[in-house]
Amino acid sequence: MSILIGDQEYFKGIGKVAYEGPESDNPLAYRWYDENRIIAGKTMKEHLRFAVAYWHSFCGTGVDPFGGPTLFFPWDKKADAVARAKDKADAAFEFITKLGLPYYCFHDVDVVDYTNDVNANEGRLQELTAYLSEKQKASGTKLLWGTANLFSHHRYMNGAATNPDFNVVAHAGAQIKMAMDATIALGGENYVFWGGREGYMSLLNTNMKREQEHLAQMLKMAVSYGRANGFKGKFFIEPKPCEPTKHQYDFDAATVSGFLRQHDLLDDFSLNLEVNHATLAGHTFEHELQVAADAGILGSIDANRGDYQNGWDTDQFPIDLTEWTKSMLIILEAGGLQGGINFDAKVRRNSTDTEDLFHAHIGGVDTVARALVIADAIRTHGEYDKIRTDRYASFDSGKGSEFEKGALSLENLFELAAANGEPATLSGRQEYLENMINRFI
């Protein structure tokens, strides 16, 4: 991937970030992400399929509930919305190609600012879609997935597809259509739904059953439209339990899996799982991955982390090697991701230097890449899999095997328990396995 620089270079003094190996002291180099290194039969690039998030990286201004912007971008100065959006695209593709990552992801309103006029918005997005298409061709960068922002505008304060006002639902459908058109035109490999406000604040004013049926109807309409217009990729749903709503209908992986099954959507949908959303739901990230993998709907990842002292979505870049090693063990065992790994993460409010955005992504990339190397080494060693296999060995033959096949009755279990007496106490060896993870790290 060549470095793509527009009329203005926004990240001056920074060249192509390259792999230099674990011994490198260069902070603007990869120490673990060697995109051509073969791990478990595929290159790192094929395994990880890294993407840069358009919103946090090029739209996020550092604003928080207690203070205004702290990040002021040179690509955000022009008064005209389309011209300003093209400058932002120039900056984005310069950054992505300097990082050497293969993909990016966007919401529609990240690409260009919208008005309240649907037709005007469609014209703006179409013009930027053509511009992004040229950027993709020049750089070799691809679109991992697109989506519509159905949560920021005040019209969506009570939800989008689940809004009690049909006029709002119609606006949501219009945005989905436009965002899907852009995704298809740009060769997007997937399309994501994140229901940021698809939920309720109070059941006193909510018909939950009806709202969820409306959500399912909107998803079916989107699938029908996408397939009719040549979209062959996967549709993803990104679970999140709360914030900003009290309770969201896409609470966690198990909830969404049940929803998809109930509404006959499993053939077209998989999950886009986020680390910070898992912890907000009271789960570990590896739990959410395992639930999705077991259901056959492990799609894509939004890579980030939360702050354990804050009960909200802080979207920090991933640095926890233990967490990611455990996660990579599950991903490798499941045969990999259907999508890729998007850095849905932002630099801190006081990280105001141009280089900070590079350091953040390099650290995240290397954390995930190193975890892949470690997880593959653990699986290749063999003891990890053997311990787990041995723990369930009683179901591999004899009466245990008959139980799994449904060949035993409760009466049979009673007779076996009476004949065999109290079972032996068998250790789960949790501490040993935790030490094994640390040993390989």
Please state the structural category.
Answer: alpha/beta
User: Main sheet: which strands, in order across?
Assistant: 3-4-5-6-8-10-11-12
> Number of domains in the coordinates?
2
Count the helices. How many?
Answer: 16
* Order of secondary-structure elements: EEHEHHEHHEHEEHEEHEHHEHEHHHHH
CATH fold descriptor of the largest domain: TIM Barrel
What name goes with the CATH superfamily of the largest domain? Divalent-metal-dependent TIM barrel enzymes
DSSP summary, beta strand count: 12
Q: Average the pLDDT over all residues and give the rounded result.
A: 97
Q: So what's the overall shape? A: globular
* CATH architecture group name of the largest domain: Alpha-Beta Barrel
Written description of the protein model:
With about 450 residues, the protein is of the alpha/beta class. The protein folds into 2 domains: about 40-380, TIM Barrel, CATH 3.20.20.150; about 395-440, no CATH class. About 45% of the residues lie in helices and about 10% in strands. It has 16 helices and 12 strands. The strands form 3 sheets. The protein has an 8-stranded parallel beta barrel, surrounded by 4 helices. The chain has a two-stranded antiparallel sheet with strand order 1-2. A two-stranded antiparallel sheet has the order 7-9. Strand 1 (about 40) and strand 2 (about 40-45) form a beta hairpin. The radius of gyration is 24 Å and the shape is globular.
Topology:
Blueprint: E1 38-39, E2 42-43, H1 44-48, E3 50-53, H2 54-58, H3 81-99, E4 103-107, H4 108-111, H5 118-139, E5 142-147, H6 166-185, E6 190-193, E7 199-200, H7 208-228, E8 234-237, E9 247-248, H8 253-262, E10 269-274, H9 275-280, H10 285-295, E11 298-302, H11 321-333, E12 341-343, H12 354-381, H13 383-391, H14 398-404, H15 410-420, H16 430-440
Parallel strand pairs: 3-4, 3-12, 4-5, 5-6, 6-8, 8-10, 10-11, 11-12
Antiparallel strand pairs: 1-2, 7-9
